[in-house]
Amino acid sequence: MNSSQFSARFNLLGIRSISILFLLLLLPQTSAILPTMQIISSSSSPIYAATSFYGPIDASSSSLSSSQTPPNDRGLCSDLDDPITDYDPPTNDFVFLVPRGNCTFEHKTLRAERYGAKAVIVYNNAEQMFFDNHTESQQTGLVSSFPTNLVDYECSNGEAQVPLSSLSTPYYSRSNDPLFTSCSSNSKCESNRCVVTGSIKTSSSPSSPTMQVCCMWDLHQYLYPDSTLLDSPPTIPSVFITSKQYDEGLPLTLSISPRPRPKYNASSFLIWAWGCFVACLASRTSGSELARALKKTKEKLRRGSGATRTPSETSSSDDDMRREDDIGAGESMELNAKHAIGFLVMSSVTLLILFYLNIYAIVTVLYAFGCSGALSQVMIYPFMRKVRGWTNYTKFDEICMTLPLDIGPCSYLDVTSTALGYVIGIVWYVYSLKQNASSYFIYWFLQDIFGLCMCTLFLSVIRLPSLRVASFLLVAAFVYDVFFVFISPLIFEKSVMITVATGGEGPTTDPMVCEKYPDTDGCAVPNPLPMLFSVPKINDYQGGSSLLGLGDIVLPGLLMSFACRLDLSKALVSLSNGEQKEKNTTGYFFYICVGYAVGLMMANIAVYLMEMGQPALLYLVPCTLGVIIKMSMSRGEFAEVFKGPEVMDKANEILDEIEGGDGSRGGSDGGSFEQDGEQLLSPNISGSDAV
């Protein structure tokens, strides 16, 4: 058994499994509060703030002077109908700096609007932690209520014991901060501020009790509306900043606006370019046997005209013509109309299973296994063959073991390339277990390489025999994609396709809890299923990735592969019949590649305009299937291409004759392709052998 056959057979089980997965799936959240607003001025860096879910986003004025609230209404919690007294507003447009606590955020904003403010900045503080616990006055010392553990503070981030007699009341007074230095200076205490917990320790010295202080949580918070208010929503914006941001000082003159994001992220262009490259390359690779046969036929005709080959040309040509080194050599499966119907049924069932059952981990393991074999066969094995040729290291060709299951003898080259592929697959799988794995370069880079290898291997194994089958399959995929993206929300209350592709439900626990304790149940952010290309968004503070499902490559790629093999078959038969120049050199393949690029760009534009995921096949199917139908009609070839071009059967016969030289499938069209007793290609391996 030769090296390539070992690699192909060793990965056959994985290839079949992944091929079925592709036909069944064909897939075309945050755990923290993200500050989406910014407070900017000409004299300082932007201060990022959390947004509100009521009122406008932008302030009506681009130049606001910061102002404290009136002393008699410091928290802006007076009744909304109370008259405004003893307050002279600034002459310029101003923004109120309001401490958190005692009433709802929307109430504060409506009250600020009564005072004439153009915006509101609510800041976090320790005082509200006491008032939230129903303490009316902090002057009562030990009998006061205290902040709540885990909600208001975390002792593992910073802790200290302070003499009770040294504390000033109210306990949230900033005059106590110097006593808390040993707590607030802890590197884990990001707020740099601590609060008393109410826990008094007397064991060491009963006459000198101490109070426990712990690191205060100081996080951004969304400003939610108050459903009990009967007033109209505020007409001024409001944002939330942390206590630390407030302590560091706000500019005297400022403006409030959303944080800038790219209108069109460059990652969308990169995923488009990568998708086009992979689709065209994988489709072109599926015709490599015919391409080499065409090259060999041209060379034979050139030699027949009097030209001769040099020894180096002979060696290079013979090496290039080894069909045994083809990706998926000897393994192919032609689809038919039944497969198209089966795809529509089984892929729908599989997608619903993934929608209802949490089996993403199993899918990831299967994908890692299949991609490791694909990487070995598509990239590592060919590269190591080149290295062997460059170095003349014959040890690679020695047999090191014999495996069962019809795999047979294995050389060091076989074992080494396969082992490397699975080592890389394990590395990728380990990173897939991390939270937000897509943010790691090695993860998404390897995933995109895996996708390239899988698409290449898939299109080299799975083939379409006619435009009729292509039409059935692509129309079925078109209906499937559109239904599960756009129509399924009407039935299942959410898009089944997008939910499955993005890895299921996002965090279900309060974002503030998840930001404090990310390991809490319900805080995990699922990683998308791996059967897709991923490119992280560039210069976007919200993160995320541009995604393209491998199904959007391999389904149109099957049609592109068919067009490529049709073009090469025409050229090969034309030359074998004695014609000196193949006809229709541009053929179908080039135009379908252009149509694919146009369709994928349309899908990208739709994502940008509609700000939601799109079924790419909605655009790819008309732009690829429509192109070949229109071109075949204009050339008068539609009937033949639709039922299955005979020229492809003739090309396969010629290919078998070139490779086998035994005339088992005839030889009248192309004649004998042996010269001086030299068998120009490897022993006959029929390209129609089914997987």
Automatic annotation (TrEMBL):
Q: Does the keyword tRNA-binding apply?
A: no
- Membrane topology label: Multi-pass membrane protein
Q: Would the keyword Isomerase be found if you checked this record's keyword annotation? A: no
Q: What is its main location?
A: membrane
Which is a GO BP term held by this UniProt record?
A: membrane protein proteolysis
Q: Where is the composition biased (Gly residues)?
A: 661-670
The subcellular localization recorded is:
Endosome membrane
| Taxonomic superkingdom | Eukaryota
Instruction: Give the stretches traversing the membrane.
Output: 340-359, 365-384, 405-429, 441-462, 469-492, 588-610
PANTHER family named among the record's database cross-references: SIGNAL PEPTIDE PEPTIDASE (PTHR12174), SIGNAL PEPTIDE PEPTIDASE-LIKE 2 (PTHR12174:SF75)
| Name of protein | PA domain-containing protein
